[in-house]
Amino acid sequence: MKKLLLYPFTYEHREIFRYKKYIADYQYITGVTANEPDFYFLNNYIKEFSDVSIENKFENALDNCDTVLFCTTDTLKLEKEVYLENIRKATEKKREVFLTKKCRELLGDDCPKNVTILEKMSQINRLNCNEKEYLKNISVPAIGIMGMGQFCNKFCTELEIHEFFKGKGYKAQYFGSKDFAPLFGGMLLPDFLFDTKKSVTKRILLWNQYLFELCKAEQPDILIIGIPGGIMPLNNKILNGFGECASIITNGIHFDIGILCSYFYERVDGRYFEEYKNYCKYRLNCDVGYINISNSACRYNLDSQESVLEYLHYESEMADKIVVDCQSAEAIGTYNILNGQSKEILLNRILTDLTEGVSAF
């Protein structure tokens, strides 16, 4: 078993540490932060997890690893030269070097030759998916996980669902919303989904054909699809791509189960979530039966000229408060994926919804 070094380690990569038990290839993981605030905050965050550690010096961690994974982050912009210098140090030490797909794109033509891109390939990746002028029926049960934006615990939800169905003996085909999903056995979404040179209609049709061919080739029992980005603008400056990616994915396949991951808000009731469920149903063609409450809240600085949100990350128990507040509206279906009891209820209800009256599943 190998030891993995992650650089840079930010809160965006927290799932690698929280769900290390779901990563088969590495017995120990060290995260290297790129600044002191992240170091102190994340050092406290990882205390509850085993076989992980944190460093603020890349060279120190490099001496105690076999593999280095370089990632990008939306909340911390590092110069290309920083990556290239640390890749050089890693290769000089004869370490195995992986780059996430976004990191590879950042480096462009300067990317060294002796590195590996972190991605899981399927037979369908080598097939030529031609666009059809109609939507094909995909008979495999599908679960779609979407969110309001960053830090909604969407990736946490994907991983728990994936592992749950694997543990039940089902062959699950999982697409992750983050580009390090292959660490957990997940696939990356195909590039054409994000190719703005193609029309939305063409991308929907290609996505539908892609999934149809994938299911024919791989014969999965279930599809689990994490949808990157947010489903809609949060305000006039935080646009989330107007939910375009979510719209393409949800219109290319019928989801039997829809899950929306929301921020934590101190005061909210069931009517708030009903509005979002209606949006998903009529704008995204996806019935949402479950709402996962994150332990993160967001706020927008109205005085700022920048299109940025400020995020507040609470202890995982904070999300239980809103779950309890909304239980009077039982039909809303609110859960906290970080709460063991709430998670088990959610997963078993999803299984029940999928299997009730379906003997073949």
Mind explaining what this structure looks like?
This protein is of the alpha/beta class and 361 residues long. The chain contains eleven helices and 14 strands. Strands 3-2-1-4-5-6 form a six-stranded parallel β-sheet. A six-stranded parallel β-sheet has the order 8-9-7-10-11-14, with helices on both faces. Strands 12-13 form a two-stranded antiparallel sheet. The longest helix is centred in the middle third of the chain and has 19 residues, at 200-218. The two termini are 35 Å apart.
Q: What distinguishing features does this structure have?
A:
globular, 14 strands, 361 residues, 33% helix, 6-stranded parallel β-sheet, alpha/beta, 19% strand
Q: What strand order characterises the main sheet? A: 3-2-1-4-5-6
**Which band does the percent of strand residues land in?**
15-25%
What share of the residues lie within helices?
25-40%
Mean pLDDT across all amino acids: 89
Q: Measure the end-to-end span.
A: 35 Å
Largest sheet: 6 strands, parallel
Number of helical elements: 11
Radius of gyration: 20 Å
Parts with pLDDT < 50 across at least 5 consecutive residues: none
Order of helices and strands: EHEHEHEHEHEEHEHEHEHEEEHEH
Rough shape?
globular
Structural class: alpha/beta
According to DSSP, the number of beta strands is 14
